[in-house]
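User: Teach me something about this protein's shape.
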Amino acid sequence: LGAPNAKDLTYNGEAISFLPAVKFPKTISNNVIPFAGTLVDDGMLETDEEKKLRNESRKILHIPNLRVSGTCVRVPVFTGHSLSLTLEFDRAITPAEATKILSSAAGVSLMDVPTPLDAAGKNESFVGRIRQDHSIDGNKGLVLFVSNDNLRKGAALNALQIAEVIVSNRK
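Assistant: First, the predicted structure itself:
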């Protein structure tokens, strides 16, 4: 196992010998793997993480037929989840409108280029790269990127924040 030489890897991905992949389907060092979780044997060629992405999105947003398609990717970072989102709306929306709405959304911090490093140790979801999706007619589509600390902004913090909303709504 040789120490990676960035110059060598720039020109040839096989310039360094890595140990065989054990936990992931490919070597994760200096790499990105478009396969997270376990392949589900239902003929759809999706992983359990990709199915969970769709099902949890539908559940959280209370939209049972929400169209969600994603490829979950493993990226070698210490902490963090990130999403590249393509969103289609019922009406036209501009990046400026979305930015205005998100600027006052609880738990959201806007930034030009959000990354897992920006989100590490913080509770907010960092949102940026907001732009029009020109593949969706009528200016009804947006593309944006979201990063958060999955050790904080996950099931436990979400449950606490949902409970706080329920309690405040009962007053």
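Now, about its shape. The chain has a mean pLDDT of 88. The helical segments are 6-11, 48-61, 95-103, 116-119, 155-170. If you'd like, I can walk through any region in more detail.
User: That's plenty for now, thanks!
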